[in-house]
Write a structure and sequence with these properties.
Largest interface: A-B, 39 and 39 residues
Largest sheet of chain A: 7 strands, mixed
CATH class of the largest domain in chain A: Mainly Alpha
Structural class of chain A: alpha/beta
Strand content of chain A: 15-25%
CATH superfamily of the largest domain in chain A: Dehydroquinate synthase-like - alpha domain
Radius of gyration of chain A: 20 Å
Number of domains of chain A: 2
Distance between the termini of chain A: 46 Å
Oligomer: homodimer
Number of helices of chain A: 12
Order of helices and strands of chain A: EEEEHEEHEHEHEEEHHHHHHHEEEEH
CATH architecture of the largest domain in chain A: Up-down Bundle
């Protein structure tokens, strides 16, 4: 299956997202693979067996969101300069969202930009992170605050990689699938309620559906001037949670699950979701063992943190909310009192 | 006078380059000015008197090419996060090429990209660096090896800033003007031979002409897939010279002057320039007190250095050469022997 990206505002950016067994990859250039020390022992040999190129080098970094920073980017850049990659060389990301985001960012920076390919190995990166060209790193002020919009030349999504994925990480990916369904497609949400992802065909169809929804959004709005912001449902809260817990306690998708619950409490407060809908979403998250509770230690500091989010302008926070299941609404005029009242339910 | 940039391959990127007295600038957002400790005492108050905005903050860094690195970028980013700039905020570069390159790069990275304005204060940045969206920093492997293509939303070129510019830096800017003339326009070269830039009207016309030539090239080829490489005439050599002398001994334009001489020796060797033409270009460089001599300590190491240049692919170096005065030729098949023979004239 192939889904295409063709960005509305750029004449030259078009690429395919292939959802299938990884094909043989032939390059008439130097290639560098960026991966981490968890994925390398599992899948690096397999990838190497698929690549034909002038020269292949590998950069292996430590696994973990806590290494997603500028220091690691400098390290990767240094390695690439040692390999003497040139402007026509290709970088390949082999790993989850962290590897994909950092590889894309590095590719955008190396000699002001060289081509890169995404080979996502986690469910989260297969259904979300690898598609759309958001790249970057975290800093002490928050998540993904430094980066670039930079599109890959191709994305290869092979569900086989998921066979080695720990259950907890699989679930974290499901959180982003539920996000897409709640925001855009009631039937898809229903499908998720009624079908199990243990079935391989269901899983493949689900990946395809999520990628299609995502590609559709990105094609309309690469730079997040409008509709793309909807993909941040749950993320405004999740970013604060991840920051407060130093990116260690929760996987990104787990923080998103909690963020979805928080956003839904706000929707409920504003009359946009009823308790039944709230509970249906919660039950689906719980079915995949995703966390739905979080203790906010300090309401004011949690609230202040919102203003460093990329979705806050002129002291207004932009909340992406469910307006019933399957549709979304963007609100940037919610009173501080109401927000804090909702946050207190987690206090 | 206004010159327009309208990039051929991007639907949404168009901006004006205003060559005139700096107008009043009104922003409905937060603004941050990035400048250095040489320019701030001279021109910051003047700029502040021209700006109306919700809030104006200033980041002042040390003056000098040796600070053009990722460490300084991180420092600037940190300051901007402290100011809580949001995605609609504007960054203004007040300074020469180093400030412009680093400000544009920072703008490209902050929350994956916010708008920036160029206010170049040196002749070099007015005629060259501020136009075209090349941003970035140096690293131990070479010049501008890490960066982004990122266009400003406007460029304001006020020749008045040049009144405080040291003569040596003025001359460094003239090197880039001579580069443009030799590559693209024999009449312009003749104009430079026959007219003095001491005259303010001549100077303004010369800035406009250079900006027009540059904008014309950038409009055709933003990402340097073709014609834009011609702007690197002299630079392939200059980058090695700057690297060998730790970016301290020569101003960029001075290294370019030497690089032009080296490229011209290669042109002469290949029968593309005769000795008269070679000498005419040299005389114009010398008239502005630009250096035209350089002692290469180690020919092999100088030669090896070429391969880290962004213009080298698959072990081929791309040389931009004068093919007579006023036209250019790109060569990537020159024998190592010939190149080294020419380099030996500087040994």
């Amino acid at each position: 299956m192939v889904v295409s990206i063709s960005l509305e505002n750029s004449k030259n950016i078009e690429y395919n997202i292939v959802i299938d067994n990884l094909p043989s990859l032939k390059f008439d250039t130097k290639v560098a693979i960026i991966t981490n020390d968890t994925i390398a022992p599992l899948h690096l040999d397999f990838l190497l067996s698929k690549i034909e190129a002038n020269n292949v080098s590998v950069v292996t970094i430590k696994d973990g969101e806590q290494y997603k920073n500028l220091e690691t980017i400098e390290y990767i850049l240094d390695e690439l300069f040692k390999f003497k990659l040139d402007r026509k060389s290709i970088i390949i990301a082999l790993g989850g969202g962290v590897i994909g985001d950092m590889t894309g960012f590095t590719a955008s920076l190396y000699q002001r930009g060289i081509d890169f390919v995404q080979i996502p190995t986690t469910l989260l990166s297969q259904v979300d992170a690898s598609v759309g060209g958001k790249t970057g790193v975290n800093n002490k002020y928050g998540k993904n605050l430094v980066g670039a919009f930079y599109q890959p030349i191709a994305v290869y999504i092979d569900p086989k990689f998921l066979e080695t994925l720990p259950t907890r990480e699989f679930s974290a990916g499901v959180a982003e699938i539920i996000k897409m369904a709640v925001m855009f497609d009631k039937d898809y949400f229903k499908y998720m309620q009624e079908n199990s992802l243990d079935n391989k065909e269901n899983l493949k169809m689900t990946i395809k559906k999520s990628v299609e929804l995502k590609a559709n959004v990105v094609n309309q709005d690469e730079k997040e001037a409008g509709i793309r912001a909807v993909l941040n449902y749950g993320h405004t809260f999740a970013h604060v949670i991840e920051n407060e817990t130093n990116y260690i306690k929760y996987l990104h998708g787990e923080a998103v699950a909690i963020g979805i619950i928080m956003a839904n409490e706000l929707s409920y407060e504003l009359g946009l979701l009823n308790r039944d809908e709230f509970n249906e979403i919660k039950e689906l998250l719980v079915r995949y063992n995703l966390p739905v509770n979080y203790k906010i230690e300090n309401i004011d500091s949690f609230y202040e943190h919102f203003f460093l989010d990329k979705k806050s302008f002129n002291n207004k926070i932009k909340f992406i909310l469910a307006d019933g299941i399957g549709s979304h609404i963007i609100k940037n005029d919610i009173d501080e009192d109401i927000i804090k009242k909702v946050l207190k339910r987690f206090g």
